[in-house]
Amino acid sequence: MSNNLEVLLTDATAALRKLDKKKYKLAMLSALNKLSMKARTAVYKAIKDRYRIKRSEINVRLVKANTTTMASVFIAKYRPLPLTKFFVKQSKKGVKVEVLRGRKKLIPGAFIGYPMGRNYSEYGQEKKVVATLPLVLRRQSRNPYPLEGLSGPSYGAMLKNPETKAAVNEIINNDFQRILLHEIDYRINKIKSSG
User: Fold this and answer.
1) CB 105 within 8 A of CB 185
2) Are strands 87-90 and 73-76 parallel, antiparallel or unpaired?
3) How far, in Å, CA of 15 to CA of 32, rounded?
4) pLDDT recorded at residue 136
5) Could you tell me the pTM of the whole model?
6) Closest by CA position to 5, among listed 167, 183, 178
7) Is the peptide bond before 146 cis (omega within 30 degrees of 0)?
8) How much of the chain is in helix, strand and coil states, percent to nearest 5?
9) One-character DSSP codes across 7-59
10) How far apart are CA 3 and CA 10, in angstroms?
11) CA distances (Å), 26 to each of 34, 51, 70, 176, in order?
């Protein structure tokens, strides 16, 4: 394994001598962006494998590297998600929820509803709740109000999960050298063909 790594590094240094700094920086930038796209796919897959959420619901944004930053960044919100983004099913005893794959949990007394934004301050509701999608709600006492909206983990918590980080690190460790050498080789061949 170490012999292969030494051969790769000597190939890379030999290729670098043929490129000037600007073209090398462009090769590095292109390699970073290709790697970050692969890492984004790995992030989505790791989140989907761990959590019972639709792929279309995952909202993790990738900011690609540019010549000034030379770094790609994942951006995710840390606002807790409503439980209805995950698998929920109403039953007579409450609501069955599956946030983590394979771990169903019954929330007794909960129900799925559409808060319509009425002001229930006279009943003890602290803030006005308006929702366009259904929410999993639970009464805080025997009275009809106040209602408590139940939520699950945020996109940021999903992104910081150790399994998600491991998936990204695996992509970086396995593919970065190969992609960088390909980009350098592409630019060298471009110079050869034009000159």
Assistant:
1) no
2) unpaired
3) 18
4) 87
5) 0.75
6) 178
7) yes
8) 50, 20, 30
9) HHHHHHHHHHHHS-HHHHHHHHHHHHHHHHHHHHHHHHHHHHHHB-B-GGG--
10) 11
11) 12, 37, 10, 15
Residue 138 CA to residue 117 CA, distance in Å, equals 16
- The conformation of residue 81, written as its DSSP 8-state character, comes to P
| CA–CA distance, 156 with 44 (Å, rounded to integer) | 13
Q: What is the pLDDT of residues 28-52, one digit of tens each?
A: 889 899 999 999 999 999 999 999 9
d(CA 180, CA 28): 6
The C-alpha atoms of residue 19 and residue 25 are separated, in whole angstroms, by 10
Distance of CA 118 to the CA centre of its chain: 34
User: Residues of the chain with pLDDT > 70: what percent?
Assistant: 80
Residue in this structure with the two tokens 């390909």, named with its chain if needed: 182
CB 27 within 8 A of CB 181: no
Task: State the DSSP code for 151.
Answer: B
